[in-house]
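User: Can you write out an input/output pair for a complex, sequences first and structure second?

Assistant: Here is one pair. Inputs:
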Amino acid sequence: MRRFVSATGWLMLGALLAVVLLEVALRFLPVTMGLYRTQRYQEWPLQSYEPGRAYTYSKSWAMRNAHRGTTNNYGHIAPFDFQKDSAPVIVLGDSFVESLMNSYSDTLQGRLGALLGGPQNVYGLGVSGLSISDYLALSRLARDEFKPRAAVIVISDGDISESMYGALGYYSFLLKNDGVALNYRPLFGESLLRKIRMQIGDLALYRYLQVNLGFSPQHLVAWAKRGPAVTKDRVDRPDPRLRPIVDYFLKNLPVALGVPPRCIVFLLDSDRYAIYKPEKASKRIDAPELRNYFVSEANALGYRAVDLDPVFRQAYAHDQTKFDYWPFDRHWNVVGHDVAAATAYRLLYGTDGEVCRPGKRAAIQ
Amino acid sequence: MLFNSYEFLFGFLPVCLAGFYLLARLGLLYSCAAWLTLASLFFYGYWSPKYLLLLLASIVVNFQLGKAISRLRHEDRAGAAKRVLVIAVTANLATLGYFKYANFFLESLRQFAGIDIPLAGIVLPLGISFFTFTQIAFLVDTCQGKASEPRFVPYALFVTYFPHLIAGPVLHHAEMMPQFAEKSTYRFQVQNFALGTAFFLVGLFKKVVLADEVQPFVGPVFEANPGYALTMIEAWGGALAYTLQLYFDFSGYSDMAIGLSKMFNVDLPLNFNSPYKAASIIDFWRRWHMTLSRFLRDYLYVGLGGNRKGPIRRYANLLITMLLGGLWHGAGWTFIVWGGVHGMLLVINHGWRNFRSRWLGHDLARSSAAGRALAVLTTFICVVVAWVFFRATSFAAAIDVLRAMFGANGLVLPVEWRGTLSAYVPAVADQWTFGNLEAFGGVRQCLWSLVLLAMVFWGPNSQTLVGRFETALKSRGLNAGQWAWCATGFACTLVFVVAAINDSRGVSEFIYFNF
């Protein structure tokens, strides 16, 4: 028994030494850390992360595309604070707009800000995991807070279909007999783990395993519970329930934003890997039919909606430069954001666009 | 089941070890061997239960044939023993031929004779080349009186022992059976366990962090669209990346196998000894896949007459051995050509050495540092060029890559470099052609390749690393057992992190599983 206890003790000591060594090493490396979802639950996603906190972002085990920064007063990724009632152009979207993997000046909002005379004219309100239901809720919050003059909304694959999922902490659309309703499953309360993390800071090793490697203890035993893999539905034909949802979204958005359709641009992202190599095309979550429906309905209602696929194809045919971090990460790089910004600018201000110009210039912080 | 998968690391291995040492503690040594055999069969069957029957049938038939050969020898009927051996080897090669080469021959017939024969729907059973060769070696050794195994379980364990079953090392009966018979093998020895874990960790790191990280630079070159004209940088970059990937992948696998076996107190033979540091092709084959080289030498080259029948026969034997060695790796002309290229290089190498010693009077044992560096570089370049055939999906694809490597499509620099070059060396930038190199990973690929090249040329190999660890284990002031437990805890934690890295990228098989 004594030998067993001794052996276990020495074994644990060795394991602890390895953990300490890894922790020290990872402290010097850009492990994703410092981003905590806001606790102002009712204001999410206008308030995104905890404001004014230093963060580090990187992707994958090799910590690619590392970026460091500080969240602004609304917890968004921007090098300046947002001002109430500043009448900016707002850019809504998911992780494509949040754009943690790019420098701010290389993002859609950064590029558009430069085209409009200053970065503070454009606010990027991107939060990873959002869908069109969240965009509608975010629009209302942004209208009341900023009184935007125009909006650019990036619709990436899955943004329409996922608006029906009803995940905890997110908005979703509910189909009822009398139509569509926006629903929110609020995220309340503070876990003990979060309290500890907020108080003493993250353990780099923990964050590396959890975020960079996407590890969870369930993975260890997942092989034992072999069953059909749970994946998001990828379909050729759209769910018929999605059309009323698109209609509801498009009908209610101008009021939610307080912006006329003329000053709202939709940029529908495409499967760029299919442009580089047709055999690398992936099956879409939002069926092509649904995307086409979205674009045609939006344009019919006076929005400026564009499918970026032909735009990307034309640009790629011209200089063969990729728009993302192929083959590791589908998020746009500076080239992708540049194409999106140029397209958004053209659609907003190409003809007849003075009404969409950002109003009051916010003071630089 | 893959050594780098969670199911192996956190399911199979702990259960297998626990069962083995529990039975050993109860003094049931024969049951230990049976347990390890059953576990190995489960390990194999986890991939495809269908081919478990093939493996079992192969073991049973070869065991019986081995017994028959042994009995005939003891009855002084050497001629009859030889005849049974010929039948046994033929049966083994026929099975291997059917599963591994049937489609290749049909395809070749279709191609060269223009006969429209449908291909057979045969799936290559995992590890068939390894378990077939292991058993052929056993039968030959039995016929020569070097081996004899009358008990089924130890024989089955020798063939199926999971650390080597799927991708080697290719084992000799004589180096394994005495270890299985040794009582100390069945006693848990924490020092061996710590060494095994360390070896496993080094192998896992090689596979997951080094081989898999350089692997994305290989596919775009060797699987480029047919119309795409590879440039010199892309072709050399891809060939070099594959050279590094293959080494770290296969030597990583071998290290993991050696480490796993060490956990059971069984030493497997080393399979690699810094092969890219070789100063000649002869030297390379003494360092690369050493157990296969040993097998080919002992059972094929020597069998053909070796160097006993004059220089011409010796060179012919070398060529035949390497051609068949190439064919062993895969059913395709590219593998045969790869073997042929190495055979030719060996012939040239032997001829050159002969010329230097006989006609120039050089002392082959002595060389200057510069001469050795040149020899290592020349050998390495030859090996890189030959790997192109090994990796290419067709002979035509290999020729395309080689043409590009030797400048047929010109030397074009990546367009991303133009800005930097224009800023620092405008004269060079003005002279050069820039283009979009689709199959080149840019600075990242350059850095990875340089780091890995530095490791293969100047870094210690696995056995040196673990050897240092072993020395440290024995020389500390601490109690050796306590130190070993501590080291095991340390290594197991790192194994867990590297396994999590592997899992974050999805399934990644070992290259040699294809052979």
